[in-house]
Specification:
By secondary structure, this protein is mostly helical. It has a single domain, classed as yst0336 like domain (yst0336 like fold). The protein is 49% helix and 7% strand. It contains seven helices and two strands; from the N terminus they run H-H-H-H-H-E-E-H-H.
Length: 145
């Protein structure tokens, strides 16, 4: 009989991690390329955008303030309480393809993707934060640069 998978104690396989990293970087480059051509406030990322925005604002009312999505604190996001809140939010979107796939998120809306300023998150977290950044016009500077 197969043992249940224990993610907390699973080994990391270097080749698989590299493949995930390549896909995450490609996604980040594609998104940045879009932001260079189209103001974020005019972008639609998924067919679930409105639902994602509604649900993230319900789960994280502090995100109603643009300054609270402009700069994301990785420590808070990945704290025990932060993980619990995000996990509950993320599971609402398991019908979205690759909703839990690793993705890169800029910690600051005013910066490019950099090694120091990038957080590894799951895709639905990326959508939630970037959709709000776009809604608030916080990414529109990129197309104007």
């Amino acid at each position: 009989m197969a043992q249940p998978f224990d993610a907390d104690n699973a080994d990391n396989l270097e080749d698989i991690e590299k493949q995930f990293a390549v896909k995450a970087v490609a996604q980040a480059e594609t998104y940045w390329g879009l932001l260079e051509k189209i103001p974020g406030s005019k972008l639609k990322l998924t067919k679930h955008d409105d639902d994602i925005v509604e649900q993230v604002l319900e789960a994280f009312p502090e995100f109603k303030e643009p300054k609270n999505v402009a700069l994301i604190n990785e420590g808070e996001m990945k704290s025990v309480s932060g993980k619990a809140k995000w996990r509950a939010f993320c599971e609402k979107f398991n019908e979205i393809e690759d909703y839990n796939f690793g993705t890169l998120l800029r910690s600051s809306v005013s910066d490019y993707y950099t090694q120091e300023g990038t957080i590894f998150v799951v895709r639905i977290q990326f959508y939630a934060i970037e959709l709000l950044r776009n809604k608030y016009g916080l990414n529109d500077w990129i197309v104007q640069k």
